[in-house]
Amino acid sequence: MADRIFLMFLMTAAYGIGFALVRWTVGFVAPVRPVPVGLSLVLIVAPLLLCMALEWGAQFWDNTPGAVGTGALVVAAPMLLAGMLAGAVFLGLRAFGPAVDSGYMSRENIAPLLVAWGWATIGLSAATFALYRYWPEPRAQLF
């Protein structure tokens, strides 16, 4: 059980570091528009939660062979890339996505925003799952 919790922590940390690398470097110079905070949180957290739920159920990386029991540490690389991809999509949507006025949001104003961020979340979740699931496993070795 402790191995699974450590693996979940490792996945979250690598994803967060990848997101922060893009958000706090390119994000300072990219022009962005204000968006509702809930859309940002769903876009950022949904792919991570999907991979964590699938890992908890399937134990794909927990049972990965590796050198002296550290095979599960290899999950950091695909999750780091997934976090960087999430940061790029987040900044891309804030820079080029539909604009919404900061005042009253009617259905006509919010609908394009919800559609764009929803499709981006679905696409990002699929890409994150593909990175998580199809990343090459480490070779089993003794030394």
Question: Please, could you describe this protein's structure?
Answer:
With 143 residues, this protein is mainly α. The chain has one domain (2-134). 65% of the residues lie in helices and 0% in strands. The chain has 4 helices and no strands. The protein has helices at 2-23, 37-58, 76-96, 107-134. Helix 2 (37-58) runs parallel beside helix 4 (107-134) and helix 3 (76-96) packs antiparallel against helix 4. The longest helix is centred in the C-terminal third of the chain and has 28 residues, at 107-134. The two termini are 26 Å apart. The mean pLDDT is 82.
Task: Give the rounded overall mean pLDDT.
Answer: 82
From the spread of the alpha carbons, the general shape counts as: elongated
| Total helical segments | 4
* Radius of gyration, taken over Cα atoms and rounded to an integer in Å: 17 Å
The largest sheet is: none
SS-based structural class? Answer: mainly alpha
Strand element count:
0
Tally of distinct domains: 1
Strand % is: under 5%
Distance between the termini: 26 Å
**Uncertain residue segments:** none
Could you estimate the helical fraction of the residues in percent?
55-70%
Helices and strands, in order, run as HHHH
Write the layout of secondary structure elements.
Layout (H helix, E strand, L loop, with lengths): L1 H22 L13 H22 L17 H21 L10 H28 L9
Q: How would you sum up this structure in a few lines?
A:
Helix content is 65%, strand content 0%.
